[in-house]
Amino acid sequence: MSKPTPLSETLENYKKTLAKRTKYVKNDYQAYGLQLASELDDWKNKSLYIKLAKTVDRKILDQAFYFVKDQTNIKTPGKLFMWKLKELRNKVK
User: Fold this and answer.
1) How is the chain split into domains, by residue range?
2) What is the rounded CA–CA span in Å between residue 56 and residue 18?
3) Which has the closest alpha carbon to 49: 62, 32, 24, 63?
4) Is the pLDDT of residue 1 over 70?
5) Over the stretch 3-23, which tens digit does the pLDDT of each residue have?
6) Which of 51, 65, 66, 92 counts the highest number of beta carbons within 10 A?
7) At 37, is the secondary structure helix, strand, or coil?
8) Distance between CA 13 and CA 86 in Å, rounded?
9) Within its chain, how far is the Cα of 46 from the centroid?
10) What are 74-93's pLDDT values in tens digits?
């Protein structure tokens, strides 16, 4: 039987992986999009968040993000973020 890996080792591997991913970030909007993806726990749609960070006003993205962060017990924060973003963009138009 093999021993389970210690949590410190798992966290160290995670930090190394994250460091490898950030070396490809060249622009501000890429870093912000990746931050949104990690905060919303929606890593599989990271390219969507990068595109939104590039094309949508940062104030609108921040408002939608803080709306989601204020909510509790959300199963899919990415969907709620997209819904609020749509509402805010329609309000601006």
Assistant:
1) 20-92
2) 25
3) 32
4) no
5) 777 888 887 877 777 776 666
6) 65
7) helix
8) 37
9) 7
10) 899 999 999 999 999 999 87
